[in-house]
Write a structure and sequence with these properties.
- α2 packs antiparallel against α4 and α15 crosses α16.
- With 491 residues, the protein is α+β, with helices and mostly antiparallel strands.
Amino acid sequence: MGEIATYDFTPDPVSLLESNRNLGYSIEEAISDLIDNSLSAGATIISYEIHWNDGSPYFLLKDNGRGMSNINNELIDSFRLGSKNPLDERDPNDLGRFGFGMKTASLSQARVLTVITKKKDFPILGLSLDLNFIKTQNGKWLLRKINEDLFKVEFDFLAQLESGTIIRWDNWDRAPDTEVSLLSLISNINNYLGVCFHRFIENGISIKHHENPISAVSPIPYGEGSEQISTVTLSKNKNAKQTSFVLQHPKNWKEDYENSSRFNSFRLFDGFESQQGIYIYRCNRLLTPNGGWLGLLRKSNASKLARVVIDYPNDADELWSLDITKTNATIPLKFKSEIELLINITKAGSVSKIVRGNRSVAKRLTFNHSLIWKSTNDSEYNTYRYNVDLEHPIFKSFVNENKISEKDLLTLLTLISDNLPIAQIIENNDTDPSKHDRLWSRNELSESDLKIARILFQDQLQKSTKHVAFSWLLNFEPYCYFENQLKRELL
């Protein structure tokens, strides 16, 4: 048997590294990937810094983790693409997966990645991966040893620690081009990190911007902010579990959720309505800070109070199809039916709180003209129409009491119906739907409402018993929502 021919297909470093710059990292995701490495290295204090540096901005991430030495090429290996086999067994707390994170995350933002590190009882080391330098090396994968004098601040910082690591980005070509724009990133980064790593921060890990601590921000509000529905393990992976929550209805919010820390992520990103969905945690690190239903359900008003939390360990990464940026995971087909079942249960809990602030009684109304507003589909103009119902007992009573003529009432209600500010309602709902939810927060009828109720009740008493008259009244808005108050006033 002849010798098998072989062919060298070592990739060109420039082509591969330049291609890896476009894997889709945002700056928030890139920094999060670096923090994953710090946490895997046992760091308890992590901080990031952004420096404008007179128009030559640079970035630093510092930690007090185990650091690296030159024994067995430990530091050099950290620069290798694919330095970890994703199929290898790993520590349960290891947030890494592919061995790409530090490199791809950093190069997605800047052209020079420098690592300065100190391991206990070892000297401080520093190496740089410089894309512009590699371009001149005729296809060789070469790192540069750094000049300690140029990184004196970083060396002095590590000299005070038993161990730690500093990641630095220079030639930051994808940074904003003005100081104001660069510094405006900080708020978004802090919010993102506060959500992704909230469990770590809550458990004592310090994550800071310079010396300013970042607050933990849970997507599920604590205390009275949410109600836990259930917690179940997934049948085909006992180490994975899912927990469902339904948030408190906005009409019950007594605090300004925009400024209350208790409501946490209600004030972040696109608002609490858009934050509905599934939150997947891998080793306590949140992968999906923006929620969403991952294709299992469409975002809607009905499900806006629903949240489902899924926890899975890092030995199930392949099953969950975790991507390189560690910001996306796919629900395994084998779990889909179980998760869909819990989603539907959670959505039902959301719906029960949303229908006029849990006043689902309106859905049971069966009498004609029970509702004050009628909604119809106008086929001629292919549009919805909303009209006040002239035949509703309240308006009929105005005519019967000779307070207004039927003709004038019709003119008035038609004018109101035709000028309903639909566009303004839609715009306001897009801006802050919770303010519409709180429209029905009152718990009692006004005295003028009760006056009309008494008139209608007395009219019905002339035709039927007290019980029948009361039941009749409860079949109309707004009285159907205030049964207990009306019992006290009328019976």
